[in-house]
Amino acid sequence: MIFDTVVVGALGVNCFVLGCEATGQGVVVDPGDEVDRILAQVKQRGLTIVAIINTHGHFDHVGGNRQLTQATGAPLYIHQADAPLLERVAKTAGMYGLPGENSPQPDRLLEDGMQIEFGTHRLQVIHTPGHTQGGCCLYLEAEGRLIAGDTLFADGVGRTDLPGGSHTQLVESIKTRLFTLPDQVQVYPGHGPTTSIGHEKRHNPYLD
């Protein structure tokens, strides 16, 4: 399968372009900014985007939603608990001295356990509240890959000092929803380098 990372925006968000080589169908996860670069990657891979997915509603992960939905016509997915954040993108980004564009409302709502298909591949939604109340991870079971949003990082976890955040809830989500996955599963966070479930079980200092 196609699994490309495009690092976008001032906060270095990992945007993912996933694709099925057999059918040419693809999805984009967390188009936070620099949509022209994301679209260039999509074009280079020859993909037709069938879904745009936000792991959560923070401005740095959703800032390109409007431009990308307009360019592709693909439906936008986010968890219901984070949907209200989409209309506050410009205000929130401005608090950090950054430009931002409010997002359209979602076409479809992520739910725990739902499957999103693109070609022969399938993403399973895992609801992991804590960083935000609607935070979700996306599991590619057949490929042994997890897109973790801002839930779990390499030797770190998502911040919980923003509205809707809860450290206790985040740790519970990681331990009960993510650490039940096989150790060899590769974890692709919303920022920073890749890690694995096994490494984080053994070494993450925030989960003792």
UniProtKB/TrEMBL annotation:
Cofactor(s) essential for the protein: Zn(2+)
Domain Metallo-beta-lactamase: 12-191
SMART domains with a match to the protein in the record: Lactamase_B (SM00849)
A molecular function (GO) term: hydrolase activity
Ranges that cross the membrane: none
Top-level taxon of the source organism: Bacteria
InterPro entries: MBL_Glyoxalase_II, Metallo-B-lactamas, RibonucZ/Hydroxyglut_hydro
Alphabetized Gene3D superfamilies for the sequence: Ribonuclease Z/Hydroxyacylglutathione hydrolase-like
Record keywords: Hydrolase, Metal-binding, Zinc
CDD domains: metallo-hydrolase-like_MBL-fold (cd06262)
Entry annotated with the keyword Metal-binding: yes
Name of the protein: Beta-lactamase domain protein
The species this protein was found in: Trichlorobacter lovleyi (strain ATCC BAA-1151 / DSM 17278 / SZ) (Geobacter lovleyi)
